[in-house]
Hints:
The protein is α+β, with helices and mostly antiparallel strands. Helix content is 26%, strand content 20%.
Amino acid sequence: MDRRAKAILNRDKAERLNAEWNVGAVQARYSNDGDWYATLARFPAALFDANGYVFFATEDEYRNSPHLRIGKLIGIRKPGISAFPEYVRVIDSNLSPDLDVDIHSVVATEGQRRLVLHLQRERKPSIVRKKKAQAATLDCEVCGFSFSRAYGSAAERYCEVHHLLPLSEVEGTTKTRLEDLAILCANCHRVVHLQNPPYTLNEVRAMLADR
Length: 211
């Protein structure tokens, strides 16, 4: 495939993922490996790879990112944008299908099974970003774990955001408020979803207290 044809395919894929995942970027770029992109000029903007994306609300946020080498192209060190603390992972084939649909849904694609994180209708990334931005701390609300204290500046903005209202209890669409969300570490988030309906945060706190 020549360079022009590949550029057209990447542009079309970026636009499709931007719409399917409801990211809301005015300009979107796609690279399968998440390493090289055409530059961004209109904002909000997003860089996509095969499994997720990084969102830039403003040009200043994009220009001041310590992870980007901006020239004629945007260069990113391997493993690409997936290593950014701000990266939103939408597709993850390594997660267990036994977890509740509140996090995942199993779909079939050309005979292979994959897991797709629901960020399209019921789990919009914008409300997750707002929760993180307005939170006093990103420490886990169950166990108190801090990615920043454990891993340093590389993970200072990382956490997982749990929706307290299970999707199985939602009829049609619903509006999510910030108080309907909880900041959790990855371990506590997975334990919450070991059953359906999920454990409450107090139930998981009690598990830890019993230990």
